[in-house]
Amino acid sequence: MIRVDRLWRHRGQLAAPAANARARWTAREALIVELVDGDGLRGQGEAAPLEGYSPDSLDQVERALGPLIGARLDETLPDGFPASARCALETARLDLAARARRQSLPQLLGVPPGTRVAVCASVDPGSLEQQLAQAGRAWSRGIRALKVKIGPRAAWSHELALLAELRRRFGKALSLRLDANGTIDAGELPAVAAELERFEIDLLEEPVSGGAWSQVEPVRVPLGADESLQRLDPAVVDAFRRGVLTVAIL
Question: If DSSP codes are grouped into helix, strand and coil, which group holds residue 187?
């Protein structure tokens, strides 16, 4: 028997503010849920909806999980149960299952021992010199992938100068991933992709959003969806089926 034993909030200040095209964050707050089984083993999961981005709020998650404290955890959850709360319970179950088997969670999920996961660092907005300094610090820590925010194509002179200098300094050993946050017009995307080809980028994330994916045809740089995955618009699903979208950012 597994039951929900505890629930508490956790808050952490970010070392530096994070932002997208619509919001800015200086801290992260989450709800930790702890399960306990009949042998007294415990597993923890986290619900961390991002204010101004996620469809759930932390208050909604707390209202959904709060009534479960002390209750036996059923296999089924009611319709409309917040996705972040569902994630917290699922990860807590997995943590508990791993502890019962005296394994790590990666082992439980079949990840081979010694597997390494590449880390990507974000380059925050700033002057060219500031951004190159950020990239240099990431490189010195062994990070070989950078994520760079880009805006509308009309204001690209700064971004193009940054990409050119990153390639000059670090060569092809550096992976470049660009995030447009839906700021590119679908009709301009072929020209945008052509302009970016020379930088040999790994990914152009969320160039357009939602229904605009119906207007996009395959281009010569990999395209990924981020915000568009929050609510699976039929145009987004179709873009994956047509091979326009090849990457999902979770």
Answer: helix
